[in-house]
Amino acid sequence: MSLFVLIGSLVLLAIALAFVAVRVLLRLPVLKHFVLGCFALASGLLAIAVFLAAWDLYSYRALLDETPVATVTFTRQTAQTYRATVSVNGEVRDYQLAGDQWQIDVRMIKWNPTISRLGVDPIFRLDRLSGRYQRLEDERSKPRTVHALRESDTIDLWHWLQKSESLLRLADTQYGSATYLPMADGAVYQVTLSHFGLVARPENRQAEEAVRRWSS
Fold first, then answer.
1. Three-class SS of residue 35?
2. CA–CA gap between residue 61 and residue 67 (Å, rounded)
3. Do 86 and 72 form a contact (C-beta atoms < 8 A)?
């Protein structure tokens, strides 16, 4: 069962609940069967909540082996200030980062064994991009920059899964991953994700030289 089948099932459930709510409401005489009216209203609200949860789930992607998730290109503007151009699924955005290094974080949802056996893969969503400083003194005293790469519109499924004890049995949302490497003018990095976490690799000479200097 693919991620889209799971999303489709949630959408169908939302439609069914909305249909029940509308049908009950249409059959009610004025001020009659108050309890049924409350049930219809609750069904309608639940339908909206399920639909919004499905929409938030749609913002995640299935994790298949090692999955390319982003390409990040850097342009130096001033000392310890860079423009990071992030390309995700053909969508390109620019972010200002302060520091010597860049870090990208991801959210991952790993399903419990029962759901996994149905063929539903772990899913992920890029979370944030931030700048880091090489020196601890700079990290404490200089400006910090962090940008959300994707945010939930209304309902945050990640938050739901973390806060609800019953939903926690469905998935593990505690697992996340991050990777960081040095920034350099013209450097290009390819970011991939596997079941073991995020990996960023240099894609051109400028990035390779920056990593070599940073590692030495």
1. helix
2. 10
3. yes
The rounded distance, in Å, linking the Cα atoms of 58 and 109 is 13
pLDDT tens, the chain, 216 aa long: 566 666 677 777 778 777 777 676 666 564 456 666 676 677 776 676 666 656 555 556 656 667 888 999 999 999 899 999 999 888 899 999 999 999 998 877 776 666 666 666 667 788 889 999 999 999 999 999 999 887 655 656 656 565 655 455 555 555 567 888 999 999 999 998 877 778 899 999 999 999 999 987
CA distance 105 to 158: 14
Give the span between the Cα atoms of 107 and 199, in whole angstroms.
Answer: 14
d(C-alpha 60, C-alpha 88), whole Å: 12
Distance between CA atoms of 36 and 13, rounded to whole angstroms?
Answer: 20
- Cα dihedral 159/164/170/174 (nearest 10): 50
Whole-angstrom distance, CA of residue 138 vs CA of residue 157: 36
pTM equals 0.63
Q: At what angle do helices 3-27 and 34-58 cross, to 10 degrees?
A: 160
